[in-house]
Description:
Elements: H1 2-25, H2 29-39, H3 46-52, E1 57-58, E2 63-64, E3 75-87, H4 89-99, E4 102-103, E5 106-107, E6 116-117, E7 120-121, H5 122-135, H6 137-140, E8 151-160, H7 163-168, E9 182-194, H8 199-217, E10 225-234, E11 240-241
Helix pairs in contact: 5-8
Amino acid sequence: MLRLLDRCRWSVAPVRSVVARVSSVVAPPRRFTQNLCAVSPRVNDCRGMSTSKLSHIDATQNQPAMVDITGKAATTREATARAVMYLPAAVARLFAAAASTTTNGQSTGSGGGDISSAKGPVMSTAIVAGTMAVKSTSQLIPFCHPLPIDGIKFSYSFAPTPTTAAATTAPTAAQGIESGSGHLTIECRVRVTHKTGVEMEALTGASVCALTVYDMCKALTHDMRYSVELISKTGGKSDHHRK
């Protein structure tokens, strides 16, 4: 019996060692925040950040939490987000051709005609996808409140890259702007009457619309890229208009 107990003791020892090592790596949230302060000079007063600056952090427990909007007033709120896609020549020439199409001999002048790919109409599909994304934002972003959206509007336009820009504005050789390329600008405007705003819904809609364009056109090239930003939001505690 004594030999059996001794053998069990030596069998448990390695397990305790492993647990100790894991515990030293997996730190509790507060310790992690303190470590972040030590390694990131750009974070000012990290310990106070959870209570005074980050609205989605519970100050009492230092844990993520949804903001309680019970006491806020319902107002009409609107937000607009913009995604700008860089399109290599293989895709840009299709948008350029669509933008210059004519109806009964007259130029449409829209600057944003739809194009077709093997999967179907590109922009029509992208707008449907963006609309679905707006309505699903609370399922994608953890602490966004589900909102009864009043209205969603997408607009888009295409512009070819000027020849001079193609030669002079490339940030790096790897991300150069090739001749014949262009830019697709997508705007998503969302409106709601509620206690919280819709900037995340607008950003999500513009992003998914751009991603769908990528998916619809990736058979032609994988060199497309995009950026997204909030242009404006109104009706909340503070308005925002990008300068």
